[in-house]
Amino acid sequence: MAKLTYDSWYTYDGDFFHDSEDESKGALNVLKWAYDTYDNELVYACSFGVEGIVMIDLISQIKPNAKVVFLDTGLHFQETVDLIQEVKQRYPQLEIEMKKPVLTVEEQAEKYGDKLWERQPDRCCYMRKVIPLRETLSGVTAWISGLRREQSPTRKKTNFINKDETFQSVKICPLIHWSWTEIWDYVKKHQLAYNPLHDQGYPSIGCFPCTLPGDTKSGSREGRWANHLKTECGLHQKS
Predict the structure, then answer these.
(1) Cys-Cys with 64: which of 31, 42, 93, 138 at CB 3.0–4.6 Å?
(2) Where does it primarily localize (predicted)?
(3) Is 46 known to sit in a ligand binding site?
């Protein structure tokens, strides 16, 4: 497959990399193609949930010094921050950037009022996540995400390679065919560190004001923005 850019997109077989005999369900194949094709023009945006831990381990097998960005909103659980330090120790060659928004949490409160995430969660996510990722992606051609099809109805049509209208980029999603059980089987098999909040009833972990426990058996995004009609932070276009 030729190199794709947002402006030169063409139709392709979404399961091009999927091999039924491949234990990674195409993940390693698509990652190898992605780094062979984009190299330093590729970044992995990682939230450091359990899918992210699996993705980092897979990426390290292909490109040990890969670029990884974490959107450091200033509102993350301490457990998430601690986990990032563990990951840095296990994969010392990774280039992990802690990307912060322009405004600190305190500055945002002064300008827009306290607890904006309760009153206008979309606006809060836009300032603290969408804009910082847009700034990061402005310097690269493609990015990697840990989306899985079974996570939510808005993600069920995600392909290995996607035209990203939100950031006018190419979005690569190696884990689309993985189940929640397979994610955890991989973590246990390779003895990977993971966020202890997963053991406390949190299937999906984001900012602490907007994350509650949910269904840990299915790995759904239940518990994210539980008190709002909202299922995404704005980084991923709904399918």
Answers:
(1) 93
(2) cytoplasm
(3) no
